[in-house]
Amino acid sequence: MRFQAAVETGDGRFPGVFGLVNGLARRGVLSGEQEAFRRVSNDWFDANFTNPGTVDPSVYDQGLHPGAVAWFKASAGELIERVTGYLEILDQHQVGWVRLAATDPGLIIYEDEHQVVAMPRAGERPASE
Question: Lesser CB count within 10 Å: N end or C end of the chain?
């Protein structure tokens, strides 16, 4: 499962939910309550969820792995549940997002107990739910 921007960026990418909310924070548009949630939640994810880029810095290298994105495994229930607060922030700022599901998200280039990072296969895009 993946939560990402509904509309692609100018470079053809669809940022994930964390990138979207962190982008709002960089722009300084979050309320105090939203920023507090973001900081506490980001800290929780950092402590409880592996960042694939720290394990393998090449995972998100677009030259090596074009289009690579992270997907939650269906078994990552607690992590997926915690995404809800991020989605609420996006809704409050009218940032469009979609939830994607795929039994085969593409070529797996990284995997751990909670997630995979996959490159989409040529011409394929997972369906939104």
Answer: C
Q: Is 36 exposed, middle or buried (0-12, 13-18, 19+ CB in 10 A)?
A: exposed
Please tell me the distance from the alpha carbon of residue 28 to that of residue 22, in angstroms, as a whole number.
Answer: 10
pTM for this structure? 0.89
The single-letter DSSP state of residue 19 is H
Say if residues 93 and 63 touch (Cβ distance below 8 Å): no
Residues 13 and 68: their CA atoms lie apart, in Å, by 10
Region of 94 please: left (phi>0), alpha (psi -120 to 50) or beta. left
CA dihedral 115, 20, 44, 60 (to 10 degrees): 40
Cα(65)–Cα(53) distance, rounded to whole angstroms? Answer: 12
Cβ contacts of 62 within 8 Å, gap of 6 or more: 68
- The pLDDT confidence band at residue 10, using thresholds 50, 70 and 90, is confident
| DSSP string across 61-117 | -TTTSTT-EEEE-TT-HHHHHHTHHHHHHHHHTT--EEEE--S--SEEEEE-SSEEE
